[in-house]
Amino acid sequence: MLAVAEVRGALHGLDAATGQALWSSRDGYAYAVSAAADGTLFVQGSDGFRALDAATGEEIWSISRSWNIGNATVADGVLYAYSGWGYLHALYARTGEPIWTASNSGPQGGGYALQDGVLYLADGGIIRAVAAPERR
Predict the structure, then answer these.
(1) What is the pLDDT of the chain when averaged over all its residues?
(2) What predicted TM-score, i.e. pTM, was given to this entire model?
(3) Which of 17, 75, 79, 83 lies 20 to 30 angstroms, CA to CA, from 39?
């Protein structure tokens, strides 16, 4: 499956092999795909952050715009994301339920990777390693 976001506020799910449209969402939500894992698309937009079923485009869960979530990564069923307000968030990828939130004074808008319980954040030539707190 391939997800394609349009500037006009549409998101399309396409068959990666054929290019055939599987589903489309034209609700005016300004989409950008932040991450994808286990059949779920994690998308940011004008009114919040959503998890969508990649096969159907149906919403699984959403978070209000006040979280201002941008780049994200998923590992071991946890969505790690930075909010524009200077916080790192860990959420259960299936439900959107928060696990923990931590203040972040380091890299904020770049890439993320998780390896051996350490979350690596990179932005503007700076790399920061953060021990991922244990899940509840």
Answers:
(1) 81
(2) 0.80
(3) 83
**Cβ-contact 3, 36 below 8 angstroms:** yes
Q: Which two tokens stand for residue 62?
A: 């959403």
**If residue 35 lies in a helix (H) or strand (E), which one and from where to where?**
strand 32-37
Helix (H) or strand (E) holding 30: none
Query: Mean pLDDT throughout 71-78?
Result: 86
**Number of C-beta neighbours around residue 85 at 10 A:** 12
Contact 37, 20 (CB under 8 A): no
Place of tokens 């952050």: 49
The residue among 89 and 104 whose pLDDT is bigger is 89
Q: How far apart are the first and last CA of the chain?
A: 33
* Strand ranges in 46-124 using DSSP code E only, listed in sequence order: 48-53, 59-64, 69-75, 78-83, 87-92, 98-103, 111-115, 118-123
Residue type, 11: L
- With tokens 């972040």, the residue in question is 104
How far apart are alpha carbons 79 and 76 in whole angstroms?
9
Count, residues in the chain: 136
